[in-house]
Amino acid sequence: MAIREKSKEKRNALLKSTLSLVNNNGFHDAPMSKIAKMANVSPATIYIYFENKRDLINQLYLELKISYTEQAFKAYSENMPVKKAFELIWYNIADYKLKQVEEAWFLSQCDNTTMIDEASRQEGLKHLQPLLDLWERGKKEGIIKNISPYILYAYAINSLVFLMNTQKRNLYQLDKKSLDQAFQAAWDSIRI
Amino acid sequence: MAIREKSKEKRNALLKSTLSLVNNNGFHDAPMSKIAKMANVSPATIYIYFENKRDLINQLYLELKISYTEQAFKAYSENMPVKKAFELIWYNIADYKLKQVEEAWFLSQCDNTTMIDEASRQEGLKHLQPLLDLWERGKKEGIIKNISPYILYAYAINSLVFLMNTQKRNLYQLDKKSLDQAFQAAWDSIRI
Amino acid sequence: MAIREKSKEKRNALLKSTLSLVNNNGFHDAPMSKIAKMANVSPATIYIYFENKRDLINQLYLELKISYTEQAFKAYSENMPVKKAFELIWYNIADYKLKQVEEAWFLSQCDNTTMIDEASRQEGLKHLQPLLDLWERGKKEGIIKNISPYILYAYAINSLVFLMNTQKRNLYQLDKKSLDQAFQAAWDSIRI
Amino acid sequence: MAIREKSKEKRNALLKSTLSLVNNNGFHDAPMSKIAKMANVSPATIYIYFENKRDLINQLYLELKISYTEQAFKAYSENMPVKKAFELIWYNIADYKLKQVEEAWFLSQCDNTTMIDEASRQEGLKHLQPLLDLWERGKKEGIIKNISPYILYAYAINSLVFLMNTQKRNLYQLDKKSLDQAFQAAWDSIRI
DNA sequence: CATGAATGAGCTTTCATTCAT
DNA sequence: TATGAATGAAAGCTCATTCAT
Fold first, then answer.
1. Which of A93, A185, D67, D176 has CB 3.0 to 4.6 Å from B189, enough for a Cys bridge?
2. Does the distance separating the beta carbons of C169 and D118 come in below 8 Å?
3. Do A28 and B27 make contact, defined as CB atoms within 8 angstroms?
4. Angle, vertex CA C128, rays to CA C122 and CA C133, nearest 5
């Protein structure tokens, strides 16, 4: 049991240094040797926990994606009224993207790279199902526009990625007021 | 003295193969040797036209960004009515992102990478000024929400990147009808 | 935990092949790949033992310089009479330069190159101190000319480098008799 | 004629930049492209004047060697008394080595490198003949030690190279007095 | 499970030289 | 004669991964 714990620690340390190095240097220039050094293990040890570099990054991607969606649906229940529910989820996500910047930034780097397997992406998407269900309900109730969930997601949710980027680059900081404005824009874009 | 001159042709071939290789394999695994081979020149020739790999990629980024914005403002004139003008620009951009997929995809890969210098990014942004001016006018006329241009851009424009990605991944194809729906969402998100 | 340790053997093999290649081909045309091949290791292995090429060469320089001075003062003790002591040291050095030709030749190549750091040179010089001390004593005893140690070294010691070169180039071979003549010249140049 | 002159100018510019670059950076890191740039010509132009890099360096070596020996025998005539003659030549050489430091330093770099062809070396040596003749005369007159001219040269002349190095490295500066001391050492080493 | 040494393949970049004008 | 573009070959070095313990 103690050994298992220690192993988990090492695995986490590896994921953490990968996150940090990729964020700071990009997928290129995040070599296994540096990842190992940062996690205080030998390069060879990485291969005990992960098949190869691609696997390491994909596993990290998946873990983050899961923790992201977990947070997205925190306190959410399926019988909340549609707008209230969306509001809750939206602010949850905004919270994640604007506060857990490192994690969110890594995920956004993954959006447009060939490093992530299509399988991981599919798996990552699954966890968003409750949001899609909510929208389906909203459509039936005549509250949400009757359009593809991809469009809904692009406008209502994904726009936050751009705002996170501007914030991370110190171009623009979102305070409470502008966050509310962003929510209003999100809601306007999808509501009927 | 008549000597061989640096050929625009070779430079363009290099930029083109860079685009193609980065798109297919990512910034990692787009080695100079392959870029050279694909452009039918010697590896050493690249360094006549570009300082190094980073420079090559940044120059490509800038050229695409400029051609992108050129297309965005095609047929646009500053005295068009706000909504008409926005509609024109939006469809121009959609056209670019959904038809010139290769170029758009490359640009979206650049959004979240450390390969692009902050200077290049700034330079690339400059060319969007007319859109910001338009929004400013829209605000004065009471048509556009009085919120940060970053938020406006995130919702009205950047959402298209996500839709382009889904399309490129064959998850979802935008036909004329869904494109109009997307425009409606964009417009709803920023109009008062 | 028992793991493979950096082997002195490999390091020595690398230093040896460097010596040999630089001697035969010069600092230019002694590429890392050849050095590795000659030492029967992978090119990458060199970088486990040395930071880079410059470091490799500087370390080799220092090791040889140290072994050179060690031999120079073999059997020397500070309370020998000045002339006897000088004679001992001079013949020690002559022995080294004329018998360990490879090492001496490498060192003489280092005398006039920018490959060797000033720091390494300084470090290398340190070990000659006993000779300088001897000369100081000789001056006090009125045996050695009261002139700068640089001049003393230039005449009494460094002249051997030229003789080594002629020998290495097969222009002139020093037998016992001519060696004694050389010693006489050395001694005459510095004695009062 | 004018064209010939201009050509000579270019050739000299090339030799000069070679001298300067090799002195500052070593034989390694004195690339043809830099040499060309420094001489304000195209890299291709070098190959009009010189066969290849090796030839360029060997020609430079020879020119310097000749100018060196010319200066060595300035004002010398074969019927001067031996000591006076030697004194003249020695100070001529010292003058060259300590004042035309750049040229002397280049030559000393050539002493121990494989870049110089044996043929060039032989050719360079030839010009020293008058000194060897002088020593021969000195031996007959019972003034100079009856030993190999190689030994004589090593002590009487070549020691100056070491002193030049110390001076170039700012370890030791030779003033008039120490120069005279050096001459005394030189003379003592070879006189009977 | 864990390691530091070791590596072949491959990276970016540079070089001496030649080409085409 | 003189050029800047062009290049094949090779340089120094790094990397993901494996080996031996």
1. A185
2. yes
3. yes
4. 120
Right CATH for A1-50 from 1.10.10.60, 1.25.40.20, 2.40.50.100, 3.30.830.10: 1.10.10.60
Strand F at less than 7 A from CB of D31:
no
Question: pLDDT by residue (tens digit) across A105-157?
Answer: 999 989 888 899 999 998 888 899 999 999 999 999 999 999 999 999 999 99
Contact flag for D and A (3+ C-beta pairs < 8 Å): no
Alpha helices in C50-147 (DSSP H): 53-72, 82-99, 101-111, 118-126, 129-140
Within 8 A by CB and 6+ apart from D66, the residues are D124, D127
The CATH 1.10.357.10 portion of chain C extends over 62-190
Longest CA pairwise span in chain A (Å): 58
> What are the start and end residues of each CATH 1.10.10.60 domain in chain B?
7-50
Q: How far is the CA of A31 from the C1' of F13 (A)?
A: 14
Model confidence, pTM: 0.91
Judged by C1' against the alpha carbon of B44, the nearest nucleotide is F7
Q: CATH 1.10.10.60 in chain C, residues?
A: 1-50
